[in-house]
User: What shape does this take?
Amino acid sequence: MLRIKHLQTRLILLLVGLLVLVLAAVFTAVYTSTTISAERQARQRLEVGANVFQRLLELRVRELTNATQVLVADFGFREAVATGDLPTISSALLNQANRIGADQALFLSPDGQIKISSKAAQSGARVDLQAAGTLYADALLAVIDDQPHLLVEAEVKAPVTIGQVAMAFELNSELATEMKQLTGLDVSFLTIRSPVRLAVTSTLENYLGLAEIQTDIISKTIMGAEFLSVQIPLLQQDEYLVTAELLSPLDEALAMFDMLKRELILITLVALIMSSVVAIMLAGNLSRPVSRLADAARRIGLGDYSRPVLLARDDELGGLASSLDRMRQEISSREQQLLHNAYHDPLTGLANLSKVRDRLGTALAAGSQGTLTLLYLVGVEHLVNATGQTRVEELIKDVASRLDGALPANSMLGFQPGMGFLVVTENLDLDRSVVTADAMLTLLSKRVSFAGAKVSLQWLAGVVEWPRHSRDPDELLRQVGIAQSDAELGKDRIAVYQANLDQAYLRRMRIIRDLPYAPQLKELSVVFQPKLDLKTGQVGQVEALMRWTHPELGAVRPDEFIPLAEQTGSIRMLTQWMLLAVVSQLRTWLDKGIHLQVAMNISARDLEDPQFPERVAMVLQAQQISARWLSLEVTESALMKEPELSLMCLAKLRDQGTELAVDDYGTGYSSLATLKSLPVQNLKIDKSFVMQLADGTDDAIIVKSTIELAHNMGLKVVAEGIESAGSLAWLRLRGCDVGQGYFISRPVPALQLESWLETVPQRFEQNGI
Amino acid sequence: MQYHRSLSSVCLLLSSMLIAGSAHAFEILVEDEQGAALGNVVLLVDGVPPAMSQPPVMDQIDMRFVPEVLVVPVGTEVDFPNSDEVRHHVYSFSDPKKFELRLFKGSDAPPVLFDQPGLVVLGCNIHDQMVGYILVTGSPQFAVSNAQGKVVLNDMPAGRWLVSWWHPSLGEQPPRSLGEMDLRRSGLELALPVKAAASVEEEKKLSPLQLRFRKATSHVAH
Assistant: This one.
């Protein structure tokens, strides 16, 4: 079965098919009615023709009868008959026959036998009267010499019948033709002596006529032409049959309608062609836009949103097209949004890690050179904890907009939460990249208004260069992370990735991993560094410092693992261990009669714990140690993180009798005014200021003024990092209260300290204090 | 003149009837084959003494020959008076007497002598329907039946005589003999082989030729 797949073809077939049906019906109706009409006309003509035929025959008979009557009424003729004057009779018959146009004239005896025939008289042949029957009153139809004749007779009376005269008119082609001219019908005369056709005369060529009686009007085909036929029997006697057949050519009647039919066919054809054209146009009008819409939908499906779906129509298709176009635009924008989301940070709208990775990949594939910089906001998690996510997000957005204006050429700025800002810069070498990064950090380090206060944010940066460091985007991202984590606040706030620093990173990871297990594995130990009272030259205080000996890494410096412990939160556990170790040593020393105040570092994390002061008190109480033997040192930056909580803690500790010190003063941003509100007794100046003290340097000015201001606030000043006699002398001269450093003593184990303590008086009193 | 002749004829008829009445006047009834009274039958009797006869007249009244059948002895002159207003042209082509009386009126026409025995058929050239018959005979006694089929023989001696008859339907055929018979029997009825007048009338509609093929014709077109 044929399946039509195309809408257009189906529409055309449907429309044209319908039209063909309608036209076929109309054509059939017209054809049928004209055919019927033609037949009816032919039938009417036939009936009229038959009547005319009869009338003609009657008329002819009447004329002939009159003429014949004239002859037989002639007294002379009657006399000739009565006297048996045959030559006279014969000549009179011939004369009259010629006069009225009869084919022959007959004279018959009273008993009906032919006595004289005008034809026979001429040709000498015998005349054979084979059959005769009355046709009309005075007319007979006779077969004479095998030919049909109309016979008009009259009796010769003198006054009784003495003979009979008959005028014979052959039913010949002449008569048929005349009949045809008058009736418009074809006429055939057929004479049969069953079963032999004796004579056939027809206006139709080669028509033999019907050999049997036909009562109805029938249609028949003669020589390929249609006729309606009616048969008029003229004589039926014994085996003789004479008929006249009238034939009305149906084709002729139909021919009248031929023009109508031709016009109808023409109209039908024209209508068919026009309607086909219209159908094709209509179908095209419908299916073309449909296939255009289908193409458009396919394009959209394949993700090509570039071309708008346009269809300048007011109908449903136009509506569908505009709907499709809306759909195209919305899918396009949604897809772009999705794409954007996939490659952009929702907060800042900047490129995210994926996008940066792609950009790096593209740049690497293009064989270009450039740098990747990671900008990290130090302590961002503390900011979130302190002020809430929303505020920090505001800050990040603000930073993003500021950075955006400060980018070098050929750069792309990205942001990845938890990582920081990423800057991809093409065609920039490492040195200039560091300079650029520095400029950006300087910009970002400006004090900003944040959470109602002006703060300076601390930023670190890591820089890698491709293709120098790697040709793999992921590797570059890993390396820049390492570089950033190598950066440190201060001079080294920008770090360039170095392969060996990568090792350090791995080491840090290991430290972070192993540190929580160090107390259990007894890898931790405590060393003590003496603090020298610069006024008395006595040592009454020591600082306890933690040492970690890793089984594989060896000794790990506190600078290395303490920040990591603070980051990971294991610092509290370390503080607790340290506290126990220090108090235990205090017990030992007090038992030995050694009176030393021991200071230990605590972390900002410790101060965030409200239970911390009680825990300290409990540990001290467990060893029956007075709180005044313990001093706790906290960095000024630690105090800044949770100022209220820290202050509460510090106040409690102070109330318990523990001595407190601010450690590493000068690295943070707290002012002395801030310190004034802290419940501390001691201020430790960071060793970075102390190590290279000399008159006239910035450090010297800072240290000198710090000492003076601290003293004004009633704080004792401790300087650490003293590595030379000069520094010691300078500090003593400037009124610094306590000194600490390698020049005085390295940090040493407890037993070694005890023996060192015995040498103190000789050393420092000698050195001219 | 005519009036006198007629008057004398009547007288003669009366005397003969008287003679017949006193002597031998007999009535004979003639019928056709269907038993109907048959007029215009001529009875001829031979062997008897001739009867008295009036001068014969063939009158024409209302375009008819009166009488239709007239019997005259051989050698008789017959008058043809015309009682109609119109003229007649009486003729005969019969062999015993061919004659022609052209367009005459009243008693203009001369009497015609019939001197040969036989049948003379009379016609009028103007009026074809007029037919009359004059039977010229040598028989001494004869009479014609009237419309009621009655034949009156006036002077018939007793005995058996040769009798013959004729009727127009026999045409030119001679009278047919009935053999010897005694005509004096009262109530004598003669049934003759003559077709009924009705069927004769009917046949007259058909021509001889039609009659010839009549039997064979089973179908006649109108």
User: Anything to note?
Assistant: Residues 2-214 of chain B form a domain with the Immunoglobulin-like fold (CATH 2.60.40.420). Chain B has three helices and 17 strands.
